[in-house]
Amino acid sequence: MSLSVHFNGYNQKGLSGGVQAHQERFTEEEAIHALKNTKSHIDPSETKYNIGLYRDELLETKTVKQVAKELTDQFQAKRAEMGLKRKRKDFKTMMVGTFQLSDETLERAGYDKSKKWSENAKESQRLVVSLYGQLVKNALKKPEYYGRVMTATLHVDESTPHVDFMSIGVDPEKPNYGVREILNGVETKDDKTGKRVYEGKGVALRRIQDDLSKAFEELELDVPEKKKTKFIEYLDL
């Protein structure tokens, strides 16, 4: 597989402000703060090269947690209006995810992991940014897979360039769909026992991985002195 995705779900109480601070770090001071509050292997001298690939306009005045709280309240109200049972207070409303290109893909883009980001060639940096940027654009169009993405940052101050993103998994217009369904698949009930049943362990994540693989195959790069070309053609994968 040429790239991977990883998710963690959080309830309203479990997502501290430190998670967003870790995700949106662009200065040495912010990197040092992240090191103190999370388990990371950050090189603060490289943090200034991190790139914000997306930030929802609502975050100009609110945190991700505050936006999630507002949407969750609307979500619960919609369920009540439809005669549905309220979700427990600790149900998961937010997700933190990671997109990561494989070492082989990075190599074929000319990126040398033995060097710092700032020491790599400008062209390889540009290719990596372009690839990740288009993967984020794909995620923005598919909240059923990735939630409502609020912020996405390309971190180049760790061992492997990767994108961390934060998203909200509740939508007032979809009162029967949320983080649990995104990560576990759609819930049904066993006719005999009445117990809740999901599609099967890993099915939902495999569906997301398949979407990423398809998106990856369709990526195009703005290559100098060439017309736009497929990534796999350009890198001869």
Give a description of the structure.
The chain is an alpha+beta fold. It has helices at residues 17-23, 28-37, 64-81, 103-108, 122-140, 143-146, 179-184, 203-217, 231-234, and strands spanning 3-11, 51-55, 92-101, 148-155, 162-168, 188-189, 196-197, 220-221, 229-230. The strands form three sheets. It has a five-stranded antiparallel sheet with strand order 1-3-5-4-2, sandwiched between helices. A hairpin with a 6-residue loop joins strand 4 and strand 5. The protein starts with a strand and ends with a helix. The model is unreliable at 221-237 (pLDDT under 50).
Structural class: alpha+beta
Q: What is the tally of beta strands? A: 9
Return the string of H and E elements: EHHEHEHHHEEHEEHEEH
Overall shape: it is globular
Q: How large is the share of residues in beta strands?
A: 15-25%
- Please compute the radius of gyration using only Cα atoms: 19 Å
Taking the alpha carbons of the first and last residues, their distance comes to 12 Å
